[in-house]
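Hi P.,

Sorry for the delay on this. The queue was packed all week, but I finally got your sequence through. Input first:
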Amino acid sequence: MSNILATINSIKLLVLATFIYAYFNLKLKKHNILLFLIITVSFCTEVLTSILLYGGISFSFLTTLSIIIHHALWLYLITVICSNTAKGYVPLFFFLVFAFVNLFFIEGVQTFNARTFICGALLYVLLFLYWSYYHLRKENFPFFTSNNYLLLASPILFFLGFSFIFGFKNKMLNTTIIFGDIKLYSLISYFVNITYYSLVNIYIYRNKKEQYAE
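Then the structure:
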């Protein structure tokens, strides 16, 4: 039992709660389908990694595959919302090509592909900044108060936080004690995950209210 409990933490419970909340409250239409797929990927990843961790089995390939799907879905989602054109899908295509080249020829299938995470994350952040500037220049201020903008903004800190951690590839830095027994990696991980899933849940709540108002 202690081994099972060791594989469970508050982040996993947060992902579980978000999955359940989305399942019962998110009406699957338009880009909400993509959001639910993203949440489902995160939920399944947490479940499978817990099982593998309990069994003492490496889950590097699983987490790499998970981030490829996770990042691709976010890149697809921002394109669907902001620029549903052939040219708009170029960043997504570039990411998928890089991810598979990195998986089979660079970092490999035996280790977690940190470069894939960083590549997808930076592409998404750049797209988010581009479209924010685009609508700001057009003085389309309602875009910034819309629920869609909240959704698009929700993974930004998640992407930046983990890109910072993976970018340095410094185990000593990640295990640096910040205060008490809390390490730098744990502090960033909890902060960005709580922000990420909290914003997603707020989006779901607001989306549900909008549906009732229709």
